[in-house]
Design goal:
This protein has about 575 residues and is mainly beta. The protein is built from 6 helices and 30 strands. A 15-stranded antiparallel beta sheet has the order 16-17-18-19-20-21-22-23-24-25-26-27-28-29-30. A 5-stranded mixed beta sheet has the order 9-14-15-10-11.
């Protein structure tokens, strides 16, 4: 009887395993022209998993669909005469949901009118032919010790310095942590970490839900002209669009937090993907009898509306609420008592909310971006941690940073010339109120507020010269603001840049870039006042950095490349 039961159980497990691995996965989407958003008909779409190849052709309206017998990681390749080949590596397909990927193809002057195409698995951007790394979702998830944190993945890349394990600061090619800029779907986000360090870009825990991420471009040099106010790096992230077939709700239990995510259509022409996360780290710290208890919360969403094939609206939100309190029960050891005596309690909230509008025409498209971000940072400390009496307060710090931003840009492709040009404006507010009573030293009672306007213009033009095997891109920015007399003239912050890519053989390329970049000093510097309540740094200038980068890239026939770069 026992033998028969065991055999029956074994057979049931085999059946269940076969059902699990036998579930089909579906990938679908549309092939579109990246400039005018018109469908690209009859493109060849190939899905590969290393063993099998699953080919398909888009229909006359650009739609494609591929069914694979089981879930896994797949590489996607799209080939069409007259367009640059498109590659996306390690797409994760699951039986639980339909994966939708709309593919923008760029026209390629080197292949127009030709019959055959030599596909290259790694695409270089004209503006940034080097010092740019694309990172996929699978690479983020499998990074050892990364805990699904994009900042931890970036810290493992060449040119990025290692930092203490409890910090997410990015130190790129010798720069400081505040010299990096982050963009989500073209909307600038000041910081992508919880418990952010004001005036820098670090923090101990990542803010982004990586399940939202579709692709990541990390620039450690050769920045595009439409990405300003950066000296060390630019991180350009794109969130996934919500699924169009049906709505779904799922929950994720991470190493330190619990998340819920909604994903699905809202109407015929709109989709939403949204999530909320809350940590349970505070319970772990209390169990370990640590003298401090951090708690973080965050939300993020992307709402997209496509009234027709020529227009799309995107609304994006990202925010966090972080609380850091003392665990007064953990006061047994000298180390615990020292930390309790010196650490303040802190709460911090921040959000970025914005929208973008994209309008396509025959050979160009315009993008309009409006956004607002707000940081509120507060810290308190009482003598002997006794908050029952207000006179025991020895630290009361409150600071806010508010930015309202506007950007208009137009991208055009005409006769092989690709151009991008636009203008930007920003209203900025910074406040600081500090009370700090230091025993045997004195009391600091300090307040500051500044308001000013930033403005700028940018442009970049690129051209492929097939007969010479050369791609060249020339760009520039003008930035200024009303804070001080030494920063009002845009000509004083003219930021030129030049990139070129020269094909030596079919697989070997020489790439180079040089540029001058400017960045405004941190608000904590601009808003600093002396004892007479006068701004100390009214005569400050933009920080300037000049880059020279050059190197070689070799691509083999097995979807891998080797690069070597020199950076000054």
């Amino acid at each position: 009887m026992q033998k028969r039961s065991t055999s029956t159980l074994f057979i049931l497990l085999l059946i269940l395993t076969g059902q699990l691995y036998g579930q089909e996965s579906l990938l679908k989407g549309r092939i579109l022209n990246a400039i005018n958003n018109e469908p690209v008909p009859f493109a060849t779409v190939v899905l590969k998993d290393g063993k099998q190849t699953y080919p398909a052709n888009a229909d006359s309206a650009g739609f494609y669909m591929i069914t694979v017998p089981q879930p896994g990681l797949f590489n996607l390749e799209v080939i069409m005469t007259g367009f640059k080949s498109y590659y996306q590596f390690e797409i994760e397909l699951t039986p639980k949901r339909v994966t939708e990927i709309n593919i923008p193809l760029e026209e390629d002057q080197k292949t127009l009118g030709e019959i055959t195409i030599t596909a290259q698995p790694f695409i270089r951007k004209e503006e940034s032919p080097l010092s740019m790394r694309s990172i996929g979702l699978a690479e983020i998830k499998r990074n050892p010790g990364g805990n699904r944190d994009i900042s931890k993945v970036l810290q493992s890349l060449p040119g990025v310095a290692s930092v203490p394990s409890f910090r997410n600061d990015l130190i790129v090619r010798g720069g400081s942590p505040n010299e990096n800029r982050f963009f989500l779907d073209g909307i600038e986000v000041p910081n992508i970490n919880h418990f952010a360090t004001q005036g820098a870009s670090g923090g101990p825990v990542g803010l982004l839900n990586v399940d939202f991420i579709n692709e990541v471009d990390f620039y450690s040099g050769a920045f595009p002209a439409n990405r300003g106010n950066a000296l060390s790096s630019v991180l350009d992230l794109k969130f996934k669009d919500g699924r169009t077939d049906k709505a779904g709700l799922n929950f994720t239990l991470g190493a330190t937090d619990l998340a819920s995510t909604f994903d699905g259509p809202i109407s015929k022409n709109s989709t939403l993907i949204a999530s909320y996360r809350r940590s349970y780290l505070q319970f772990l710290f209390a169990a370990l009898e640590l003298p401090f208890l951090p708690t973080y919360n965050d939300f993020q969403f992307k709402y997209k509306i496509k009234p027709d094939n020529k227009q799309e609206f995107t609304f994006l939100g990202l925010g966090a609420y972080d609380v850091f309190v003392l665990n007064k029960k953990a006061n047994k050891t000298e180390e615990q008592q020292y930390l309790l005596g010196n650490l303040p309690e802190n709460n911090q909230w921040t959000y970025t909310i914005g929208g973008s509008y994209k309008r396509y025409s025959e050979n160009s498209y315009i993008t309009v971006v409006l956004s607002r971000n707000h940081l509120n940072n507060r810290a308190e400390k009482y003598q002997n941690n006794d908050d029952a009496v207000s006179s025991n307060k020895i630290l009361d710090y409150t600071s806010e940073e508010i930015e309202n931003k506007f950007r208009l840009e137009r991208t055009t492709l005409n006769n092989g010339w690709k151009t991008n040009a636009g203008i930007s404006a920003e209203q900025s507010t910074y406040t600081n109120s500090t009370f700090n009573r230091i025993p045997n030293v004195g009391t600091v009672n300090y307040a500051s507020e500044i308001n000013f306007i930033k403005y700028g213009a940018f442009g970049q033009i690129s051209k492929t010269l097939p007969g010479m095997g050369l791609v060249i891109s020339l760009g520039g920015r003008l930035d200024a603001n009303t804070f001080g007399s030494k920063m009002k003239n845009p000509a004083d912050q003219f930021s030129p840049r030049l990139s070129l890519s020269k094909t030596i053989t079919e697989r070997l390329t020489f790439n180079a870039n040089s540029g001058i970049y400017y960045q405004l000093p941190a608000y904590t510097i601009l808003g600093f006042r002396d004892n007479d309540n006068m701004l100390v740094n009214k005569g400050v200038k933009y920080i300037r950095s000049t880059h020279f980068v050059a190197g070689f890239e070799y691509q083999n026939k097995k979807n891998s490349k080797y690069t070597i770069e020199g950076f000054l």
